[in-house]
Amino acid sequence: MKQRAVFWTVLVSAVLLLGGCDAAHPPSSSRLQATDGRTYNFPADLRGRIVIVSFIYTHCPDICRMTIGHLLDLWERVGGDTNVVFATVTLDPARDTVAALRQYAEVWGIPSVRWLLLTGTIAEVERVHKAFGIVARKSYTERLPTGESVYFIDHTDAVFLLDRNGIVRDRREGSSLDVRKYAQMVQQYIRGQ
Question: Which of 79, 95, 121, 193 to pair with 58, CA 20 to 30 A apart?
């Protein structure tokens, strides 16, 4: 298990160094459906606001739960500011429908105002992953006697800060986010730095 974690850390680092987000330009956009019932050209439609972008999937047993926990704490610190939007994109569009994401938001107590949980076609979601340098790969798949497929996804653990122009200004691990320091950085961008 530890070797697998090291492998993914090295792989993700290489992907980020070789591709993914270009600091000088906003990530390319894709059409995604949100839990608020709207379709967004994401992330372009959110320009003009500070955007906290994260990536999770609803069946994730560990990393995503830690990330969402940190983001909920961050929401308590900066979520009241209307200049900030949280956008959480699925890593598993096959299972994470809009309805599944709404249920996830309800279970976790994710606010419905200015926190978008986003999904779409596999192709559209993969385009967003590529634009942000996110790796998401299915692990083994097992079929239950009911016919249901059970699998997990090995994925990049990342949270991004986009400025008002949609340019990535920060990337760090969501599961180990120092919420206090991150909130201070977000507040600096809110004030125009």
Answer: 79
pLDDT tens for each residue of 75-96: 999 988 899 999 999 999 999 9
Pairing of the two strands 84-90 and 115-119? parallel
Please answer whether residues 161 and 168 qualify as being in contact, where contact means their C-beta atoms are separated by less than 8 angstroms: yes
Domain positions in the chain: 2-190
In angstroms, the Cα distances linking 121 to 15, 17, 68, 108, 127 are 23, 27, 23, 24, 10
Q: What number of other Cβ atoms are within 10 A of residue 48's Cβ?
A: 11
Confidence category of residue 149, pLDDT binned at 50, 70, 90: confident
Amino acid letter for position 139: S
- Coil, strand or helix: which one is 122? helix
Is the pTM for the entire model greater than 0.85?
Answer: no
Query: What are the start-end ranges of the E strands in 95-167?
Result: 115-119, 136-143, 149-155, 159-162
Reported as a single tens digit per residue, the pLDDT across 130-147 is 999 999 998 878 888 888
Which DSSP symbol is given to 171? E
